[in-house]
Amino acid sequence: MTLDVTGLHAGYAGARVLHGVDLTVAGDETVALLGRNGMGKTTLVRTICGLRPPVVTAGTISYDGADITKRSSFQINRAGIAIVPQGRRVFGSLTVVENLTAVRKRTSTTGEPWTLESVFDFFPRLAERQRSYAKSLSGGEQQMLAIGRALMTNPSLLVMDEPSEGLAPSVLDVIQDRIAACGARACRCSSPSRTSTWHSRWRTAS
Ligand SMILES: Nc1ncnc2c1ncn2[C@@H]1O[C@H](COP(=O)(O)OP(=O)(O)OP(=O)(O)O)[C@@H](O)[C@H]1O
């Protein structure tokens, strides 16, 4: 399954941000997108995942050969792309278990489907906090929950926006190790920056 972005122009009312972006993420690839503040990383991520705004004015986004440029975020998720958004955006008034089970699962096409148990195996800390409200979790725990919630949709492509934002290095190491353990190659960013955006091609096959 390959993500292909071709000649993408997108932006907001009065602000054109993306000017002809080309990007390909092939199967089993991990791609890191780096850039200074305001370059448009989040805009690109949101556009790929169908979140509005921004609005696409030209270009195409295809995934697994299908044109997803105009699809809704829900449809794009059903196609296999899941986002871990900037700022985590967990449901604060729901518990950890409720956050993980609130999402709609697609049929896994790339391996064993994710379950509560496998997410808890992946992030044991979430198992310990499973009855806690998300708003009471630490930043790192919320990031684990946001990743777990995305995994529960059984994605074939995981798009992570600033997954390291505000996290202590020790927590970041746990998250990076977990991602690497899942088969994403070369997940550690070559840049020393801890605020970069990662796009991880996710492979759930063991
Ligand atoms: N909702 C919005 N409405 C109008 N302009 C926006 C909106 N969101 C972002 N922008 C503008 O789009 C440009 C790109 O922002 P974006 O958040 O994509 O950058 P970024 O590379 O992710 O930055 P950072 O590294 O600081 O998170 C910025 O100039 C920003 O002001």
Automatic annotation (TrEMBL):
InterPro entries membership: AAA+_ATPase, ABC_transporter-like_ATP-bd, ABC_transporter-like_CS, BCAA_Transport_ATP-bd_LivF, P-loop_NTPase
CDD domains linked to this entry: ABC_TM1139_LivF_branched
Gene3D superfamilies: P-loop containing nucleotide triphosphate hydrolases (3.40.50.300)
Domain of life the protein comes from: Bacteria
Alphabetized UniProt keyword annotations: Amino-acid transport, ATP-binding, Nucleotide-binding, Transport
SMART domains xref list: AAA (SM00382)
Domain ABC transporter: 3-203
Name of a matching Pfam family: ABC_tran
Family, per entry: Belongs to the ABC transporter superfamily.
PANTHER family: ABC TRANSPORTER ATP-BINDING PROTEIN, HIGH-AFFINITY BRANCHED-CHAIN AMINO ACID TRANSPORT ATP-BINDING PROTEIN LIVF
Name by which UniProt lists this protein: ABC transporter domain-containing protein
